[in-house]
Design brief:
- This is DUF6268 domain-containing protein.
- The chain is built from 2 helices and 16 strands.
- The chain is mainly β and 295 residues long.
- It has one domain.
- The N terminus is likely disordered.
């Protein structure tokens, strides 16, 4: 029975490697970001839950899926900003091991992003992309990829470079550059500290009946210090504190969008929102994850 359980966990880990660079199979993440506009103090709270599921494994091919749930609460923002906002996602990925050191991954995602007042086909967003990965040595692996997302505000491209560099047993540099790089120093087998940068762009469709399909676009860049603690071999608790370097909350009318954005930077003329709030402030995060130990 234990052997079967371990094999199942191995399959889960392989599936998670298809979808992301980390080893997490299940994650619950909560973050709070402070902000100020005019003379008003406000904050946002975001809950993220992810579960990775194995689908197929055979020699050089691995396939998996990730189910995700997101909830964004906006506190003390103008009434025009609907509250709360929800995201439900399903991502599928396929990994082909070209050689022991080279692999190619393809992924697609569909998601419902809405205030759930009413739901229609306009509330769905879609993404697709690829990543080519090369293991240079036992200490260094890199990957190059491109993701495309059909957002409510237009077309979004996210070029990225995956890095997993471990120059020693204590130090590691990993993540997707430039959107989510992370540097960690490992004090002990269980305790690590580090620095992380995170860039995110998202959009949520509002009610068709009450809001005529308006949508909210959220852009955020955060920098933080991070503390990670592993326990019970497979579990990890982490805490982060830092600053939202930039927060942007824009409210738009429903319109035909043909604009392009690179990560969070628009190409060409910027669209004119009905309302816009730009701010920066304190950022806190707390999370717990389950995965196979890398030890």
């Amino acid at each position: 029975m234990l052997k079967n359980l371990f094999h199942c966990l191995q399959l889960l880990l392989l599936a998670s490697a298809v979808l992301a660079q980390d080893r997490d199979l299940a994650t619950v993440h909560y973050a709070v970001a402070g902000m100020k506009y005019n003379d008003t103090t406000a904050h946002t709270a975001q809950l993220d839950v992810k579960l990775r599921i194995p689908l197929y494994q055979k020699k050089k091919i691995v396939a998996g899926a990730t189910l995700g749930y997101k909830q964004v609460n906006l506190f003390n923002l103008p009434a025009d900003y609907a509250n709360p906002l929800y995201g439900f996602t399903c991502q599928g990925a396929w990994l082909y091991k070209v050689t022991p050191r080279r692999s190619l991954a393809l992924f697609v995602q569909a998601g419902l992003f809405t205030d759930v007042k009413d739901i229609s086909g306009k509330d769905f967003r879609y993404s697709a992309g690829f990543r080519y990965r090369l293991k240079h040595s036992e200490k260094l692996s890199t990957g190059w990829g491109l993701a495309y997302s059909r957002q409510f505000f237009g077309n979004q491209l996210v070029p990225f470079i995956d890095v997993d560099y471990r120059p020693s047993e204590q130090w590691s540099i990993s993540g997707q550059f430039p959107v989510k790089p992370k540097i960690l120093y490992r004090f002990t087998r269980k305790l690590s500290i580090g620095l992380e940068l995170n860039g995110e762009a998202a959009s949520y469709r509002l009610s068709a009946a009450a809001r005529e399909n308006e949508f909210i676009q959220i852009n955020q860049w955060t920098g933080l210090s991070r503390l990670e603690y592993q326990f019970a071999n497979a579990w990890q608790l982490y805490f982060g504190i830092g600053r939202s370097l930039k927060q942007s909350y824009k409210l738009f009318d429903d319109a035909s969008q043909t604009r392009w954005t690179i990560i969070t930077v628009p190409i060409g003329d910027k669209p004119s929102p009905q309302r816009k709030i730009d701010s920066a402030g304190l950022y806190l995060q707390l999370g717990i994850s389950f995965g196979l130990s890398g030890n």
